[in-house]
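[step 3/7] inverse_fold.run input=structure_tokens len=204
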């Protein structure tokens, strides 16, 4: 099991959410995207499209585009409306794993098609790194790559399955991470395949 060899500050709860809870989360996401539609984020300066589509829940949402780069904002970049609230089931998750830290302000929703991936990066657009990052996987499994806090250092790979939760906090709060690949047909949750990641964070 990988659980014994994860870096200090990283925790992995395989199957934290039951199949019924995963379905509830999916239903919640479906409702949320009718209010806050998925959009295609673009990289700062180059304007290159990322392969995931995204949206957010919470008082702040993470967005990126060519002109203004990576940032948090209280409204959807296309509709201009506030993001939908973070549902109770995710507030409860945070309370259970985040060790007394105040409630999450942002929940990024990433949708991966089976050929999408995410390059290695740090989550560092928040004003403070005291709170952990808590992340939920739904749908097809992925090969998640985790490094240290310096770019180009040693990395390890973990498979994340539907219902899994992973947390990076403390010495691992700024750990590099990315998604190398999605494994098609590894979950029945999403009828058309793909993977959803939910990332809970505090922003300030
Ligand atoms: C992210 O780092 O934004 C997403 C990570 C994941 O999809 O598991
Ligand atoms: Mn990230």
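[step 3/7] decode complete -> sequence:
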């Amino acid at each position: 099991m990988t659980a014994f060899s994860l870096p200090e500050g990283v925790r992995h709860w395989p199957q934290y959410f039951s199949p019924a809870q995963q379905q509830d989360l999916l239903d919640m996401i479906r409702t949320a995207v009718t209010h806050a539609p998925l959009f295609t984020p673009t990289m700062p300066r180059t304007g290159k499209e990322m392969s995931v589509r995204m949206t957010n829940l919470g008082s702040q949402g993470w967005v990126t585009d060519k002109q203004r780069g990576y940032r948090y904002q209280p409204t959807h970049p296309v509709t201009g409306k506030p993001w939908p609230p973070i549902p109770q089931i995710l507030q409860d998750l945070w309370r259970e794993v985040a060790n007394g830290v105040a409630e999450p302000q942002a929940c990024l929703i990433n949708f991966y098609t089976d050929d999408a991936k995410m390059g290695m990066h740090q989550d560092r657009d928040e004003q403070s790194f005291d709170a952990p990052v808590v992340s939920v996987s739904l749908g097809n499994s992925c090969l998640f790559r985790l490094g240290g806090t310096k770019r180009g250092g040693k990395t390890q790979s973990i498979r994340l399955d539907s219902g899994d939760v992973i947390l990076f906090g403390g010495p691992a709060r700024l750990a590099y991470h990315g998604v190398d690949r999605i494994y098609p047909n590894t979950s029945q949750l999403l009828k058309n395949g793909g993977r959803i990641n939910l990332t809970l964070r505090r922003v300030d």
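[step 4/7] annotate
The chain has two helices and twelve strands.
The pocket of manganese (II) ion (ligand 2) is lined by residues 121, 123, 177 (CB under 6 Å).
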